[in-house]
Amino acid sequence: MPRDRRVNEYNDSAFQVHAIYNFAVRYPERRRFSRSARNLIITEIKERRLTAVPDEHWMEEALRAAQRALESGEVPVGAVVVCDGKIVGRGSNRNLTDCDPTAHAEIVALRQAGVARGNHRLEDCELFVTIEPCAMCAGAMIHARLKRLVYGADDPKAGAVGSVLEVLNHPRLNHQMEVRGGVLAGRCAEMLQSFFRTRR
Is 106 known to be catalytic? Predict the structure, then answer.
């Protein structure tokens, strides 16, 4: 990449906010960003291949997948797997369509991503899903060695990130991942609530 393009990319305000947020989470003891700290931020960017695209953008993609599930008469949950700033897997609930109890949006997206990457390990990938994953999906993410999970609404009935169970980042498991919840949570929850209201 040409130097001037790199400089413009690093100077982009959204990119800086995203990078500094991740840096601050990792190094909470830092109060000011000196030149050396900024260099560490850039190193972090390169190592983690962060992009200027905020989490909300990818959650919008997951919501589009959820809409497709809704149009098919499925519970409206959608997911996307992102690697190097590109979507490598998309999924929406297909339990009824495929007569498959395992066809949750996350599983469908992970399967597609595995094929696209040519590997069942997705160590450089992030998964965005509209609702907190269940125990099955959380387990699949651990097996995939996902780098990061971002979800929308909490699931007080089956959530396995902390609402009901704590499958992810359990201290006795051999894989840990970064987790962020609550991204576009209102819209994600409303889609699900609307769906179940029509079923009552």
Answer: yes
